[in-house]
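To whoever picks this up:

The parser on our side crashed when reading a file containing two proteins. I've narrowed it down to the boundary between the first structure block and the second sequence. Both blocks are reproduced below exactly, byte for byte. First block:
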Amino acid sequence: MDFRIGDFVTRISHNHDILFKILEINGNVAILKGVDLRLYADSDLKDLVKAKGDHDNLSDQQIIEENVRDIQLDRSQYFYLPGKILHIDGDSDYLERCMKFYKDMNIKANGITIAEMDMAYRIEELLKEFRPDIVVITGHDAYYAKKKDVKDLGNYQNTKNFIEAIKEARKYEKSQDKLIVIAGACQSNYEELIKAGANFASSPKRINIHALDPAIIASSLALSDRNQSIDLIRLIEKTKYGSDGMGGIITNGTMYVGYPR
């Protein structure tokens, strides 16, 4: 079969479980990127099958509509000032999708693409510049299961980089109430991200997460009353794989409510 860069494909050996887009072709090997999941992979071309139809970001609109319906605000008398979000992402395509999500949710957000290894060096200046209520630190990660030791940070692609970025954010603002940190990507070491100071993180079961999962958490917090604690379980269940993919601590929202409108 003739494959080209940009083709949508699935893998025969994995029972076509994940939809990918081809980024590169090197000889008989294709470099793949998950369409909905924050995942990179490589595959022999013989293991690939083209996916039919236009699959680019098809799930996003449904997710946006579900989240818009979930936000019930009385606009007849009150006005609302949602929390501000700074979204730092190692992947420009996923960042673009998250920024569209924030826009559709009517939330003020600034997005910056930074390689995971550079996030810790840049995050303080960005926090000072944008002064957000919520910062998202995400991109790509992977747990190398063949190495078996789930606690060894050396067995993760970018968890160490996310941890260092969280620590720098906490040097800027220690309080987890004043600065909410959402961190991690596919298969990240959830426990260590939380220990480093994240309010929310991936991935408790070391599974892949949806491209929009960090944005779903961030937007819900931005649109929740800052005087009330969020419903933690309900919030986590709004993400693609629930508590297998995301987890966190009970946190207050970041939105001011005013009267009269």
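<<boundary where parser fails>>
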Amino acid sequence: MTGSYIIEARGVWKSFKKVQAVKGIDLKIYKGQFIALLGPNGAGKTTLVEMIEGIQKPDKGEILIMGKSWKGNEDKLHRILGISLQETRFIDKLRVSETLQLFAGFFDQGMDRVNEITELVGLEEKRKAFVVNLSGGQRQRLALGIALINNPSILLLDEPTTGLDPNARREIWEILIRLKEKAGTSMILTTHYMDEAENLCDYIVIMDNGVILKEGTRYQLLEEESGAKVVEFTAETGLLPETVFSEKLPFRIHSEGTRERGYVTLSDFENDLQEFLSFLKSNNISLKHMECRRKTLDDLFVELTGRKINE
């Protein structure tokens, strides 16, 4: 393995009964990189992360962490990983400080580390609160604190903000942004939120149906689409005819929930716009509203999969 890779997955496959969850994935992660595994529910993100965590074993292929496989290296790898699962179950009648002390003890960490983590995740005022009385956002911050208690080289977070309100999501983001500023920690974040991937991660891996569709920095993912524009429009005459959504047409038009609104990506905006307007005219479609904007990751995901990420 190349020394600069902190994690490497080589030809990894995993199935559960008749469901092929991960299909031959290759992935390389560098030290200090913050990576988003971006995709809808069922994309294979959690299964891939669980194999990296050692919770699941690949059916085929291998995963190396700092050049080591899980077999025979369990204790060493557990000590360099920080893990936060989709759902963390706590002992309700333990206080926040007691919970952190419990996990700190597993890694021979003392009260100095507990206090440091309590401050980092913003739970100073909740030190003596019973876990059962924490809000959803506070519980997630506690789960993140537990994942960080051993000062891990690699942080693995599985959908850490799902179900949280916008303020609670932002609080988790702020913690991770502060962590990112400290050199050395690598992070894999699974999410189905585009804004989360863009704001927190250097590198984005788009997954669906167990495969990687595309990967790169946000700039790299959209660079080849730099001349592309998205045209959103609303029909003047009510519903758009079903025929305009045919894949056989020169422009792939997507509906925006109803057939009154649609959007289309024009790869070469200057040359394609006039042709698009002529296409609408030939189909007797008059527009009430039209707006042009730059292409986003949401648009890219729709092009790759034919649907929005949260559908």
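After patching the parser it read the second block fine. The first helix runs from residue 45 to 53. The domain at 5-222 is CATH 3.40.50.300 (Rossmann fold).
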